[in-house]
Write a structure and sequence with these properties.
This protein is α/β, with parallel strands linked by helices. The protein contains eleven helices and eleven strands. The protein has a domain at 182-218 and 251-316. Helix 3 (125-132) packs across helix 4 (142-164). The chain is globular, with a radius of gyration of 20 Å. Keywords: Oxidoreductase.
Length: 316
């Protein structure tokens, strides 16, 4: 999206070969030199980003450990050290004006929380307590460890900013459950939550039972709205030291089925659960995010129907 706006972009990843498809994709779609790739093998080591940030005006830090280990001593320090490492590198570059961190809804609330009034000051301390509990580190702890890594890595950023008082401004973007069009289906398939609509479309009873039927009612957002909010956090002159909540609205298992039945009326889908309710939490900061979308792009959050349709467009 930044490339579409005419900006030059430098991307960093651990493995050049694994990112080759992305480099080729951007070389085909944009002018030569619009995108360059830099390999950063150990993102949590001191100085690892020094070279990649040379001459950069804005930084978006998306990387975070996602291997879902149940050991908090493995995951949480890697996440926090990665954030602190790139912040220190940004501090050394006088050209840096903005820093944006990709956080997560699980840094704020548990998916099982169904009736909260969520503010921008809230943190998912419940996950931290679960993750930091004494061993044994059983696999069922993995989600709490991941959530705790998002809590403590974002907190590490805000603490660092308070201590260092850098010349650049910083923001975080907090996506909820992300649907929408993958960047390149042939190369990456349907990663992460974009695979959920595929499971519902295929109506495989085993996979429905494993991934969908016990799904907690939560909140969704379209991937392109997440990208737009990162750009707002990076470029909007009045967005500084904020947490932008990318929460378009509530959804549950029945909404997924109903939406896909609407788009594909001739297909057979699972029965709805008649007693299923919506998540009733009030995400107060989401209005600020939607106002920014309207101000910068002329429309608010993408609907669930439109997001799911885009998610499945290239599946056939």
């Amino acid at each position: 999206m930044l490339l579409d706006l005419g900006y030059k972009v430098r991307g960093a990843g651990r493995d050049f070969d694994k990112c080759r498809w992305l480099i080729q994709l951007f070389e085909e779609q944009y002018d030569k030199g619009a995108f360059e790739f830099v390999a950063v093998e150990n993102m949590s080591s001191e100085g690892s980003y020094d070279e990649s940030l040379s001459g950069i005006a804005g930084v978006i830090h998306v990387a975070s450990p996602t291997q879902f280990s149940s050991d908090p001593n493995e995951i949480i320090p890697t996440a926090t050290d990665g954030v602190l490492s790139i912040l220190e590198s940004a501090l050394e570059q006088k050209s840096v004006l903005r820093f944006v961190l990709t956080s997560s809804s699980v840094a704020v609330l548990e998916p099982s929380s169904q009736s909260l009034e969520v503010t921008s000051e809230m943190w998912n301390e419940e996950a931290v307590q679960k993750a930091r509990a004494p061993p044994p580190y059983l696999q069922e702890r993995a989600m709490a460890v991941y959530a705790a890594s998002k809590v403590q890595s974002e907190q590490a950023m805000w603490d660092w900013l308070a201590r260092k008082d850098p010349s650049f401004k910083a923001n975080s973007v907090i996506p909820s459950f992300v649907f929408g069009r993958p960047l390149d289906v042939q190369s990456q398939g349907y990663p992460s939550s974009s695979g959920i609509p595929i499971v519902v479309y295929n109506n495989d009873p085993k996979k429905m039972g494993e991934f969908i039927d016990n799904f907690q009612p939560f909140f969704f957002v379209d991937v392109e709205d997440v990208a737009r909010l990162h750009i707002a956090a990076l470029l909007h002159p009045e967005v500084a030291n904020e947490r932008l909540f990318a929460f378009a609205g509530p959804f549950n298992r029945n909404d997924l089925i109903r939406s896909l039945q609407h788009h594909f009326p001739d297909r057979q889908f699972p029965e709805e659960f008649p007693e299923l309710t919506q998540n009733e939490s009030k995400i107060l900061p989401a209005k600020r995010a939607e106002d920014l979308l309207k101000q910068m792009w002329g429309k608010g959050f993408t609907s669930l129907d439109d997001s799911l349709r885009a998610n499945l467009e290239e599946y056939f």
